[in-house]
Amino acid sequence: MYFSLISPAPGRERDAAQARALGPYEEHQWLWRFFPGAPDANRDFLFCHREVEGASRYYLVSGRPPMSPDAAWFVQTRDYAPELDSGARLRFDLRANPIVTSKRDGKARRDDVVMAEKKRLLQERGLNNWSEWQDAGKPQLYDLVDRTCRHWLIRRAEAHGFLVDEDALRVDGYLTHSERRHLPRTQQLRFSTVDFSGVLTVTDPDRFRSALTTGIGPAKAFGCGLLLVRRC
């Protein structure tokens, strides 16, 4: 496996900004250009986009080393084979798509964890929409996001071979995204993202290494699931 940083080449920041696509679908297709020679291959990379001092940075974990398709982008790559023992403490960052799966009409449905909790609370009170809830017990959106997303990550951490330090965990940047382009007229892509950061402890090195290379949660094609770690 390989870990890569893709960033604008020095002096080519303007060209890089013009070349980079912005929509979720286009961004994924644009990154495929860094993996030439296998147009029909399944996606074999995870990525995460960050803005650093106004410039785009892409972090990738991939089965093949990426190559820059033009002079505007600079690629730095190294082998990625983390050696970690049980009990290792690491700082982490994760952009994820927190969802809950339920059955409706005999079919499995995926729902955003925040929206699912909103629906549950409204049903308990016999309300149809959030604006109808006027009493003092109504939670603030920030508190609802923090509680539901924390619960989502903490539950999944054990299956992926780590424990989260709940006191150090931060939940930020909850956003909902929609995309209609490249889809049939009656369909619309909708998903949410949230940024986690904090400290974790490795409990199962094999499962944890798998999480580092295969990701956590859905929407990996849209920049979710890549767990970035560093030593405390």
UniProtKB/TrEMBL annotation:
<protein>
    <recommendedName>
        <fullName>Type I-E CRISPR-associated protein Cas6/Cse3/CasE</fullName>
    </recommendedName>
</protein>
<dbReference type="InterPro" id="IPR010179">
    <property type="entry name" value="CRISPR-assoc_prot_Cse3"/>
</dbReference>
<dbReference type="Pfam" id="PF08798">
    <property type="entry name" value="CRISPR_assoc"/>
</dbReference>
